[in-house]
Amino acid sequence: MTFPKGFLWGGAIAANQAEGAYLEDGKGLTTVDLLPTGSKRWDIMFGKLPSFQPIEGEFYPSHDAIDFYHLYKEDIALFAEMGFKSLRVSVSWARIFPKGDDKVPNEAGLKFYDNLFDELLKHNIEPVVTIAHFDVPVHLVEHYGSWRNRKLVGFFETYATTLFKRYKDKVKYWMTFNEINMLLHLPFVGAGLVFEEDDDKNQIKYQAAHHQLVASALAVKACHEISPDAKIGCMLAAGMTYPYTCNPDDVFDAMEKDRESFFFIDVQSRGAYPGYAKRFLKDHNLTIEMEAEDEELLRKHTVDYIGFSYYASRATSTDPKVNNMTSSNVFGSIENPYLDKSEWGWTIDPKGFRITANQLYDRYQKPLFVVENGLGALDQLTDDGEVHDDYRIDYMKRHITEMSEAIDDGVEIIGYTSWGPIDIVSASSGEMNKRYGYIYVDKDNEGKGTLSRSKKDSFEWYKKVIESNGEVL
């Protein structure tokens, strides 16, 4: 099991799931700050927003999260102890431009990320920075309609350019939009979209997608001009779709399901709307408003690498009698009888990881970066403060093994930043009890706890993986 020299082992977190300090030092409200726990959460993620302000009596886990904003030095020291070569983080748009359309950036927000990147570099940890990770300033949603409005393209370009200029000497790896295809599945999370009853949701979603794709191209252009030695990528919520049977209808349906997501990366990596996307838009009577320069922008400013998350594969059937759907995953899927499931109903498919990596590399012939992969589980803290998470070690071991097989297949992979190296707030459910980390954080679903950090068994295991460059699993 040989990984390339300089392989970027590490972990990944997001500002809105880790930082907390949600209005501190001039930060504005973001979309995630309006996602409470409980039954309202999913309705809002789908685009039914009851208020542009937090509602009294609701619990909003992002407001405090795990207080990474104040405790980042302690946490980075633990990551360094594991031997991290990289840490994927995101910048909170509303820390830099509190309203999103501000004329001048917030210096306190810029300074925080200066300090964060300096701390990482002090420990020889490469920052891998996502510009937009499910994070839109609420002002842009309330006053412009978020990404349905072309003006967001300019606001995002200003924001991205500000980051490139400020951090050009500190950040070598950037990504534009986290899991950009999530826009189709959770439109408020992916693009800050809020719908009225009579809205044509497909029209709005695909117009918003076009605006994000143009904004991504402009960010690539700016990055290459300001920081020529940096690399800037896109990011896909990946996981191939299996046909439930060899019925050609099932095979075609699986291909179409995959294309829903590939559409975004096809444009960002290949530089044009693919034929199948044009047919989809035509068949569904959707018209994308484009400006004269859009097609050239998309063509000329493609990404340097493909970032992707992998948690599970999916399966699909055209037979209405086959309707045993998996639960708790935003991507609808028929249950695969050959696979086990996590405690949240997500399929566990290490071989699918290898297949997905090959699929992406065959399609794009650009370096891949595995920027999310991990197991959410109900970890139990023992009386003596330990967490024995052999199940997580087993999950990670099997997936890293298949990643090494993909590399042997000829797939070029830059690095692997597993999701949630420290326990953070779950993006989907808002829970703390859905834990991914190698580091346990003392906090529960109601926000109670000391926030103390403690090492799980997987901490020492991952340390050995990194020390051996993947040879010791």
In CATH, the homologous superfamily goes by the name Glycosidases
CATH architecture: Alpha-Beta Barrel
CATH class: Alpha Beta
Assign a percent range to the helix content. 25-40%
**Total domains:** 1
Helix/sheet category: alpha/beta
Strand order of the largest sheet: 1-2-3-4-5-7-11-12
State the major sheet.
Answer: 8 strands, parallel, barrel
Overall pLDDT score = 96
Give, in order, the helices and strands.
EHHHEHHEHHEHHEEHHHEEEEHEHEEEH
Radius of gyration: 21 Å
So how many helices? 15
Measured by DSSP, the beta-strand proportion falls in 5-15%
Low-pLDDT parts are none
Might you state the CATH topology name?
TIM Barrel
How many β strands by DSSP?
14
Identify the overall geometry: globular
Gap between N and C termini, in Å?
10 Å
Question: Which tags fit this structure?
Answer:
473 residues, two-stranded parallel ribbon, 39% helix, 6-phospho-beta-glucosidase, GH_1_N_CS, EC 3.2.1.86, hydrolase
Task: Describe it.
The strands form four sheets. This protein has an eight-stranded parallel beta barrel with strand order 1-2-3-4-5-7-11-12, surrounded by four helices. The protein has helices at residues 15-18, 40-45, 68-82, 93-96, 107-122, 138-144, 151-167, 187-191, 201-226, 248-270, 275-283, 294-300, 350-364, 390-408, 457-467; strands at 8-12, 86-90, 126-132, 173-177, 231-238, 241-243, 305-310, 314-316, 340-341, 347-348, 368-372, 413-419, 439-441, 453-455. It is α/β, with parallel strands linked by helices and 473 residues long. The mean pLDDT is 96. The chain has a single domain, classed as TIM Barrel (Alpha-Beta Barrel). Helices cover 39% and strands 14% of the residues.
